[in-house]
């Protein structure tokens, strides 16, 4: 019996070693793709490890990520206590919300993007108005349409919640006494020039000028709208030192949220197994990508020209383009996209070049330092989204104009409904002569970019 077993074992070993040893050039399964497409495929997988972020010294700290988990899921950091980051970035909608346009405390004018592999991005938001993941997080917290909170109130809410406070202090050290209303008045924040409140104030001023008695008068202030926002007034009333303390907590919140969002990884899809098989010459792994999706990839990098902007392991060039997506009700037709994003970026207090960065002199700043050299932005340009997990996150585009991937592909193929051009350039997108079969193939390929192995526990609410 023992002899039989060991003979079988020896045979298995022999077979295995033959398999390995002889997997030379002649026995490798050939690529089912064209030569050009094979080269592209090898460049688009695997997704590299999440890059370090030296501008956030807590980015790889597990305790900061766990604090980030609490902050991401709590509704305590919003006016009325109803909105969390997770209200709009939900696991069941692929870290987006399934809506055309987002809805926070008030309706927004843009669609919620998914957060897959977000820590690999260079610019954040559709218009790239944030240059780091941690500074991105600070914007929804104070946006009157989203969390509608103020940084002092953020700090007060954390201070007042035993669990949040303990978790925060574990990472960032003892908090100041934010319960002291004399030092830390509620709702204190510097109100940026592009704040919705200023637009409303200008609107009220215009109506007052036209004799509308219901329009609210406002106090004079040196903002362009002439409106002294009560949040700004409270902020100005604080001591310099306390403003610094409040900013420090606020930045900490952003850095913890960034550490948490690094976990949103999509890296193991049928396409990735296919490419792994391609490298190994392993036919059974290559077979994980079905023939329709294979044909779709061939089109994606070939005739359909998608690769011009959706390249690299994230399927994005991380840049901005005007694809002339049609307008939708509720969103402005003339959203200036990247052009305004650049203005907001320049006005940001928390950029990667600011003293709030943990590496202000470092390489992360290069993209900002050299920005003027490639500021060719005109028209209505938006960031090329990553296509990983794209099948999980309808609707699509910065304004949610398309309900399905079929609709997106039809738009690229026919260009029907494309907004007229407002700027020269972007001649890449011309109607494509692709029939129904080709379109189905492109959709099948996009669907092959879904990671079915992700563990949702990583991003779930704390227990
Ligand atoms: C009301 C819904 C809503 C809430 C609440 C919300 N977001 Fe978002 N998020 C959006 C929308 C909409 C955008 C795109 C806005 C834009 O580009 O102007 C966005 C963009 C982002 C981005 C940029 C992604 C990219 O690829 O550029 C990140 C990261 C993000 N949100 C994280 C967060 C975090 C962290 C919070 C909580 C502090 C949060 N969001 C709260 C709707 C929301
Ligand atoms: C000129 C660059 C460019 C080319 C070429 C291009 N795209 Fe895009 N793609 C973009 C940009 C920019 C957006 C976002 C546009 C917006 O939101 O207004 C986008 C959005 C998308 C989206 C929506 C993703 C989401 O999460 O909302 C899909 C899907 C997509 N593209 C697939 C394709 C396919 C398939 C092709 C080839 C037929 C293609 N793209 C060609 C730049 C490009």
What distinguishing features does this structure have?
463 residues, mainly alpha, Cytochrome Bc1 Complex, Chain D, domain 2, 2 domains, 2 strands, 1% strand, binds heme C
**What general form does the structure show?**
globular
Give the biggest sheet: 2 strands, antiparallel
Within the largest sheet, what's the order of strands?
A: 1-2
Rounded to the nearest angstrom, the radius of gyration is 26 Å
Q: N- to C-terminal separation?
A: 54 Å
Q: Quickly count the helices.
A: 17
Plain-language structure description:
The chain is mainly alpha-helical. The protein folds into 2 domains: 168 residues, Cytochrome Bc1 Complex, Chain D, domain 2; 163 residues, Cytochrome c-like domain (Cytochrome Bc1 Complex, Chain D, domain 2, Orthogonal Bundle), CATH 1.10.760.10. It has 17 helices and 2 strands. The chain has a two-stranded antiparallel ribbon with strand order 1-2. Helix 6 packs across helix 10 and helix 16 crosses helix 17. The longest helix is centred in the middle third of the chain and has 22 residues. It is globular and about 75 Å long. The relative contact order is 0.16. The N terminus is likely disordered. The site of one heme C (HEC) has 26 residues, from helix 16 and helix 17. One heme C (HEC) binds next to helix 4 and helix 5.
């Amino acid at each position: 019996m023992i002899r039989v077993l060991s003979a079988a074992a020896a045979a298995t070993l022999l077979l295995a070693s033959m398999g390995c040893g002889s997997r030379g050039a002649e026995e490798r399964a050939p690529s089912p793709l064209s030569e050009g497409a094979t080269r592209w495929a090898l460049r688009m997988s695997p997704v590299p490890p999440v890059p370090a972020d030296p501008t956030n010294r807590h980015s790889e700290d597990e305790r900061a990520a766990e604090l980030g988990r609490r902050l991401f899921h709590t509704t305590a950091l919003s006016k009325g206590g109803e909105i969390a980051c997770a209200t709009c970035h939900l696991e069941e909608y692929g870290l987006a919300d399934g809506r055309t346009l987002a809805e926070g405390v008030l309706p927004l004018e843009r669609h919620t993007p998914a957060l897959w592999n977000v820590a690999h991005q260079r610019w954040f938001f559709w218009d790239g108005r944030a240059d780091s993941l941690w500074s991105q997080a600070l914007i929804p917290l104070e946006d009157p349409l989203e969390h509608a909170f103020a940084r002092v109130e953020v700090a007060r809410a954390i201070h007042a919640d035993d669990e949040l406070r303990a978790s925060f202090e574990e990472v960032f050290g003892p908090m100041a006494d934010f319960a002291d209303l004399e030092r830390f008045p509620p709702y204190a924040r510097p109100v940026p020039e592009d704040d919705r409140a200023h637009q409303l104030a200008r609107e009220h001023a215009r109506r007052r000028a036209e004799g509308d008695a219901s329009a609210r008068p406002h106090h004079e202030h040196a903002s362009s709208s002439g409106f002294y926002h009560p949040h700004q007034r409270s902020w100005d009333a604080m001591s310099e030192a306390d403003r610094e303390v409040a900013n420090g907590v606020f930045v900490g919140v952003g850095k913890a949220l960034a550490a948490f969002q690094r976990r949103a990884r999509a890296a193991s899809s049928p396409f990735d197994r296919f490419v792994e098989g391609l490298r190994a010459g392993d036919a059974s792994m290559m077979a994980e990508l079905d023939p329709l999706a294979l044909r779709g990839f061939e089109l994606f990098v070939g005739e359909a020209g998608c690769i011009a902007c959706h390249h690299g392991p994230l399927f994005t060039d991380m840049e901005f383009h005007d694809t002339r997506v049609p307008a939708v009700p509720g969103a402005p037709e003339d959203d200036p996209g990247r052009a305004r994003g650049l203005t907001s970026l320049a006005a940001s207090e928390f950029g990667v070049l600011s003293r709030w960065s943990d590496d202000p002199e470092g390489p992360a700043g290069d993209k900002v330092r050299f920005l003027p050299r490639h500021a060719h932005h005109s028209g209505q340009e938006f960031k090329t989204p990553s296509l990983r997990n794209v099948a999980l996150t309808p609707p699509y585009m910065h304004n949610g104009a398309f309900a399905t991937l079929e609709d997106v592909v039809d738009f690229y193929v026919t260009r029907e409904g494309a907004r007229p051009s407002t700027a020269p350039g972007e001649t890449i997108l011309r109607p494509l002569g692709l029939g129904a079969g080709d379109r189905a193939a492109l959709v099948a390929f996009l669907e092959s970019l879904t990671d079915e192995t992700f563990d949702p526990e990583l991003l779930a609410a704390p227990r």
